[in-house]
Amino acid sequence: MSSLPEALHTVGWVIAEGVDVPAASGEVVRVLDLLGVAANAFLASVLARERRFDLVAFLVLGVAAGLGGGMIRDTLLQQGPPVALTDPAYLSVALGTAVVFYLIRVEARWWRGGIRIIDAVALGTWGAVGAQKAVLAGLHPLPAILLGTITAVGGGMVRDLLLQRTPIVFGGNTLYATSATAAAAVVVLADALAPEGYESVTVLLAAVIGGGLCLISYRRGWRLPEAREWRLRLRGRRVE
Amino acid sequence: MSSLPEALHTVGWVIAEGVDVPAASGEVVRVLDLLGVAANAFLASVLARERRFDLVAFLVLGVAAGLGGGMIRDTLLQQGPPVALTDPAYLSVALGTAVVFYLIRVEARWWRGGIRIIDAVALGTWGAVGAQKAVLAGLHPLPAILLGTITAVGGGMVRDLLLQRTPIVFGGNTLYATSATAAAAVVVLADALAPEGYESVTVLLAAVIGGGLCLISYRRGWRLPEAREWRLRLRGRRVE
Amino acid sequence: MSSLPEALHTVGWVIAEGVDVPAASGEVVRVLDLLGVAANAFLASVLARERRFDLVAFLVLGVAAGLGGGMIRDTLLQQGPPVALTDPAYLSVALGTAVVFYLIRVEARWWRGGIRIIDAVALGTWGAVGAQKAVLAGLHPLPAILLGTITAVGGGMVRDLLLQRTPIVFGGNTLYATSATAAAAVVVLADALAPEGYESVTVLLAAVIGGGLCLISYRRGWRLPEAREWRLRLRGRRVE
């Protein structure tokens, strides 16, 4: 539970020191973004190890889980090749994480707890970054929120498709996709209010809110309800 | 069985009234297109309810089924972000339909029969619209027909992948993909013959033909045959 | 085992005759590329026949397996519609092969052996062509190698997703993806050394190396090891 206070502390610190807030927020967002790539590549490596896959599978799943959401986002926005391909840092982090956790098996409990926190913050960050990019590309609020959500949960969906698992966003879950949607919605709302040039501050704030919601819903076991059983009987005839 | 006569009636009406036929056809095509989004989001919600999924799953499947085909089409054509993201009507219809049928369970038989008809007309519309867009983007006839077919069946394939079902286009089916291909082929053929500016009339005609073929093949149980058992024995040695 | 010597012979021949080497290499690469489309569409048809699918499924799987990798590559590079849609030769070969092997069942052993060789050479060719395109689009070496690998194995992954099989690149395999990565890496390395205008010669060389590695690893049963069992015990507490 240390990442939220830390992130807030960083923001407070740069304001106190008179540092360029938007630039510093941009840096923090980039670090959170890359931490998210590493956390998701690690989580994919746990699944690859369970199935006794070889190195290629670790790499494929690491890239799919860590970079898949952003690649889908950039492919849909059509403003040039995905940032995952043009900025070598992304691919290096995804592949490097996959190689490290192919070689090393981690079992300590505090480690997985830490990864869960990083994953939650990354979920919020990805939702916020995706929505921000969509807004800057001129999309309406609703599609921008969708694109933020896709950015955040897309990598996990591709990973689950490759592993032939039911995608993690389908039920039985705490507010996973919902947290990403919340972060994306905060960005879309805040963009209308924040002064120009403060986009990265908005993203950071939204990431913290989304990540916090994800962690709280996990700890408290909050879930969305299943489909309601209200039945609309039109002329009363039942089908099957 | 009322949508075909209705659509034809609309065309007849605008001709009789001396209204701008291409513009009116364009409007009819747009309405059929959005009706198709709603019909496919509804059909996805039936599958989501069977599996007792939560609201997020209803939304994900509604968007995938209703907008997936068009998003694949626009991503491949690379003429800017998909229309599903730039025209908020598409996303609103898909999400709105998913929310409504998350809250309400419909059991009446005539309702599902009506949805089947709308789905068939939408299949033809999507095949025709996709082929039209491809032709206007300068693609050759064969790729244009492929793209029309992908537009029509792509959403259902993505939905089935997410649900880990055998895609509906693979066998055991009436002429589903075939009807979309027929609509796309009519557009490609008609474009060579129709006067300029009448693209939307062509699309409407092709949608009616494709949708009609889909409905007739369903009622009569028409299917494509399985792979033939003609064996080419080269030197007569069998493999395994 | 005749395609490698043949390809080398062709290169030798054009050099001996004083023919324009880059142009001739480009032609050879195009032929290998299209042979790969046919080989993959054939291999997909074998799977479709096993499942007693109809013609539509043969066509869908043939297109997915034969053209999927290149379509993903071109979609990510975002330099216009995929070559599989703009050059009708690709779609014609994929669909034509699917139709032929829907009608005809081939059982001879030498035939499948020949297809395996073509498939290996195609794997190398696709890896090399994909990396070359990525380099020309200005990507860094690492993303270029990734994109070459995706080009080579992407079609098979889409095919396996549609068939709900574990993707062929995940373990239990000889050096399949690894051979494609090797071909892509050769291109990236050679591009730094080769004189300008000799890109297609580089691709041909890389394709032969990648294809050769694929065949040799198949014959000798070379595999990558499973994930190591080195455990990092941090404070010694085990999870689960």
Automatic annotation (TrEMBL), chains A, B, C:
Domain Glycine transporter: 31-104, 117-190
InterPro entries per UniProt: Gly_transporter
Source superkingdom: Bacteria
Subcellular location field: Cell membrane
Transmembrane segments: 28-48, 55-76, 88-105, 117-136, 142-162, 174-194, 200-218
One Pfam family named in its UniProt record: Gly_transporter
UniProt main location, coarse: membrane
GO cellular component, one term: plasma membrane
Keyword set, alphabetical order: Cell membrane, Membrane, Transmembrane, Transmembrane helix
Topology within the bilayer: Multi-pass membrane protein
Family, similarity comment: Belongs to the UPF0126 family.
Protein name: Putative membrane protein YeiH
Organism: Serinibacter salmoneus
